[in-house]
Write a structure and sequence with these properties.
Layout: H1 2-24, H2 28-42
Amino acid sequence: MGLAAFVGVAATGVAVARAERRRRAYTPEEIRARLRERAASAGEEPEGA
C-alpha cells in the first residue's frame, strides 16, 4: 500500500506541474482574450434549447 500511495502522489505532482507549465505559457493578452471568449459564449443560449 505504501508504494502505491507514493506512486499516486508522484503521478499527481507530475500532472499538476504539466498543467502549471501549460498555463504559464500564455501571455497576459492571450489570457484576456480567452476569458473574453468564454464570457461571450457563456452569455449565449445553448443550441437546441
